[in-house]
Amino acid sequence: MRPLSFLSEVEDMIRSLNPAAIPGPTSRAIDFRQGLARLQLTPAGDLVAVQCFELADGRDCLKAVVHWADSEQCREVAVYPNEKNRLTIWKQSAYQLAQLWLDGAPDSGGSKPSLDDEMAEAEDEPLQASA
Predict the structure, then answer these.
(1) How do residues 33-82 score in pLDDT, each as one tens digit?
(2) Residue 37 half-sphere exposure, CB side, CA atoms within 13 Å?
(3) N or C, which end of the chain has less CB nearby within 10 Å?
(4) Is residue 38 a contact partner of residue 57, using CB atoms and an 8 Å limit?
């Protein structure tokens, strides 16, 4: 699937789940050379950004990031289509992104730590031997 087609699928999914969630027109931008695309959902700057690329083994991959204008938090979703899921993965992933955005930004106090945060905490903790 092409980045703009996927973003259209995400927007359609948001509008079907909650028609009032997007207050006005949306805007899109794309860089075909780098496989990057962005869908701005609100004038405040809520957006979904995607990047399409080919993995080393030749498989396609799409990485999507949901960002809320009033938060420093964002959420990422990776999509790996294959022969078994190629017909359903796009709609499922669009639904997942739409639901993430509609759920709103996680609060910074109670949000799940990122893998980088967990690794940093692990480096600060002393190693303990097991018996």
Answers:
(1) 888 999 999 999 999 999 998 889 888 899 999 999 989 889 999 999 88
(2) 21
(3) C
(4) no
Strands (E), 33-127: 36-40, 47-54, 60-67, 74-79
CB 77 within 8 A of CB 61: no
Read off the tokens for 109: 């106090």
Q: What percent of the chain has pLDDT over 70?
A: 81
* Amino acid at position 85, single letter: N
Whole-angstrom distance, CA of residue 29 vs CA of residue 70? 21
Identity of residue 79: V
How far is it, in rounded angstroms, from Cα 70 to Cα 66? 12
Q: Which ranges of 1-131 would DSSP assign to H, the alpha helix?
A: 3-17, 89-103, 115-124
Structure-token match 């995607």, residue found: 50
3-state secondary structure of 102: helix
